[in-house]
Amino acid sequence: MSKAYKRVVREALAEDIGQEDITTNRTVPAEARCRARLLAKQGGVLSGIEVFRSVFDCLDADVSDWGSLAAGDRFEKGDEIATFEGKTRAVLTAERTAMNFIQHLSGVATQASLFKAAIEGYNVKVCDTRKTTPMLRQLEKEAVIHGGGTNHRHTLFHGVVIKENHIAAAGGITNAVTKAWEGTHHLMKIEVEVTSLEQFDEAMEAGADAIMLDNMGFDDMREAVRRARGRRVVIEASGNVRLDTVRKFAECGVDVISVGSLTHSAPAIDMTLLIKNV
Question: What is the pLDDT of residues 35-66, one digit of tens each?
């Protein structure tokens, strides 16, 4: 776990604990230890097991006899995801924060796996976006990978993506691409977001490395793919991609389908943490 995410964990714990866990500290002996079991209440794909463990470590739970599934593993309702022993007070105080992380991240991984399964048989990538939870982007993008998806750029620094407002501010697609080429090094890729075939043609002629088809109809997407045949350009589809429509996007022949809901709308996976005294 990186220093950055240890800081996130500590801040999440501080948010939940406040001055102290008054319930646990008044009812549980300081010397007590327990055996904890993390159980799945529904099926899914695991992500966040590392940060789950780190929450207890940050409270000096003295974790021992640890065992768990690995990130990316599938589990079913009733499966044991992790077991460990630790100081009861620390385990109980850390429980909700640890559960919040692992349930959310496993939800992201599960969502990614469902989208990946929906396009089985097509040579196309399901990709996340920057529509992530503030301060949790790296963890959420790792969760997408655990679910079988792929990552778009991690930060604004990792690539040029010229979108609608950039085009308006720069005075058009050609001007925006030209300025991007002049202002970056020769290894930097440039993507342009387009909403019509006219814009698509302009982006290709301007020399875009990738073109994002934003909220375009399926007929226009198929035509864009046809026009790009033989050209070294990556075609990405984006906008209103749902689990029940993603296969239609894949059928158009695009290279990448970006899905914001992988991270911003993934439902948490239901789990429970049960303890017993040792």
Answer: 999 999 999 999 999 999 999 999 999 999 99
Q: Which of 128, 140, 142, 214 is catalytic?
A: 214
Contacts of 219 (CB under 8 A, 6+ apart): none
- Tell me if residue 248 is catalytic: no
Domains and CATH numbers, the chain: 3-115+266-277 (3.90.1170.20), 117-264 (3.20.20.70)
Instruction: Check residue 241 and give its pLDDT.
Output: 97
Secondary structure of residue 209 in the 3-state scheme: coil
Among 10, 74, 153, 163, the active-site one is 163
Residue with tokens 């050609």: 174
Based on the residue annotation, tell me whether 163 is a catalytic residue of this protein. yes
Judged by DSSP in three states, 24 sits in helix
Which of 96, 137, 179, 247 is catalytic? The answer is 96
223 is catalytic: no
Count Cβ atoms within 10 A of the Cβ of residue 95 and give its class: 0-12 exposed, 13-18 middle, 19 or more buried: buried
- Give the separation between CA 61 and CA 63, rounded to whole angstroms: 5
* Catalytic residue (one of 10, 37, 131, 247): 131
Contact between 57 and 63 under an 8 Å Cβ cutoff? The reply is yes
Task: Say whether 214 is catalytic.
Answer: yes
Query: Which is the catalytic residue, given 21, 128, 193, 236?
Result: 193
Instruction: Tell me which of 2-16, 219-233, 241-255, 259-273 is least confident.
Output: 2-16
- pLDDT tens-digit readout, 90-105: 999 999 999 999 999 9
CA distance 87 to 33: 4
d(CA 256, CA 136): 23
Q: pLDDT at residue 1 above 70?
A: no
3 catalytic residue (yes or no) = no
Residue whose structure tokens are 């992201």: 108
